[in-house]
TrEMBL record:
GO biological process, one term: phospholipid biosynthetic process
Protein's name according to its UniProt entry: Glycerol-3-phosphate dehydrogenase
InterPro entries found in the cross-reference section: 6-PGluconate_DH-like_C_sf, 6PGD_dom2, G3P_DH_NAD-dep, G3P_DH_NAD-dep_C, G3P_DH_NAD-dep_N, NAD(P)-bd_dom_sf
UniProt cross-references to PANTHER family, sorted A to Z: GLYCEROL-3-PHOSPHATE DEHYDROGENASE, GLYCEROL-3-PHOSPHATE DEHYDROGENASE [NAD(+)] 2, CHLOROPLASTIC
Stretches assigned to the Glycerol-3-phosphate dehydrogenase NAD-dependent N-terminal domain: 1-54
Molecular-function GO terms, alphabetical: glycerol-3-phosphate dehydrogenase [NAD(P)+] activity; NAD binding
Domain (Glycerol-3-phosphate dehydrogenase NAD-dependent C-terminal) ranges: 73-213
Pfam families associated with the record: NAD_Gly3P_dh_C, NAD_Gly3P_dh_N
EC number(s) reported in the record: 1.1.1.94
Organism ancestry: Bacteria, Bacteria division WOR-3
Amino acid sequence: KGIEQKTLKRMSEIIKEKFVSAKPVVLAGPGIPYDMVAGSPTSLVAASDDQKAATLIQEIFSFENLRVYSHSDVVGVELGGALKNVIAIAAGICDGLGLGINAKAALLTRGLAEISRLGIALNANPLTFAGLSGMGDLIVTAFSPHSRNWQVGNQLAKGKRLKAILDSLLGIAEGVETTKAAIGLANKLRVEMPLTAEVNKILFEDSDPKESISRLLKRRLKSELW
C-alpha cells in the first residue's frame, strides 16, 4: 500500500501497468496485527474494480474473528489506507506534546477532511472515508501504541531526531515517505492540506512541533465545510 513518490501513483495503478490482465484487490481497514494475532474481532474492506474479485477475497479472508466487507471504490480505499499514516504521525505528535483529547479529536477530524478533499479530487467516493478504510483505519492507527506512525510522531514531539527514531523501529513507518507523496499530490491537484504540510515540515524541515501547532491555529478562519 502507499503512493509511489516519483509517479504519485497508487499501488493498484502500478500493478495494472505491469500486469495488464490483473484484477488487483485492495485489503484495508483497522487491522493492527498485534490485536489480530491475539484473536480480537476485526473488520476490513476488500476493494476492487472487479466485484467478483472483491467478493472472492471477502470470502477467503472472512472467518470467526475477521469480517470482510466488499467495496468498489479502489481509489478511496487506497487513499484512506495510505494517508491515514500521515495523520497518525500528527496524532503521535499531539500526544507527545500532551495537548489533550480535545486537540486530538480536532486533529483527526480535520485530518480526515484533508484526506477526503484529496480523494474527491481523484474521483473517490467521499462516503468511503467515513468507512473502515478511512475513519476506521485512522482511529486505530492514531490511538494504538503499536502503531509505528504514531510512535514516530510521539518521539518527534519529545525531541528525538527522525533518523534515530526510524533506526529504532521494528518495521517501517510508512507515513514518513507517504507524507512526501501526499504533498506532491496536493500540489499537483491544488488541494489544501495544511495539517499534512505541517507534518512534512516537522519531518523534513526540522520545524518545531509547537510552532507547527501555532501556525495551524493562526490560520485564517473559515467554514468547516470545506
